[in-house]
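hey so i finally got around to running the thing on that chain from the lab meeting. sorry it took forever, my laptop kept dying and i had to restart like 3 times. anyway pasting the input first so we r on the same page abt which one it is
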Amino acid sequence: MRLDKWLWAARFFKTRKLAVEAINGGKVHLNGQRTKPGKEISHDAQLRIHKGSLEWDIKVKVLPKQRRPASEALLFYEESNESISRRQSIAAELRDQRIAGPQQTEKPSKRNRRMIHRFTKKPE
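ok and heres what got predicted. didnt touch it at all, straight out
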């Protein structure tokens, strides 16, 4: 099975085009080396996938015939314990940063919008 098809079927990427772009951009390594989207993968292949600030270290277990629901796609690979803990800690940090940052308030009232427009209006 092609690497880009497997990444799409395992639901790491929403489309095959996004999977191809990630592979060509060096975000996916097969057995520790950069690869091409058409590379054939087999059982027990080691993959390292970078997506944003997250990273997965996985071992391919199943080569599916078609894309399956997310609950079944989890069975297509086995993730290392270090990878899981690393991803969870990064997700917790991002969550904490989001909470600590400025919060979205309600939109301005009609009066407040008028005041904003008066303040930002260029003099003629």
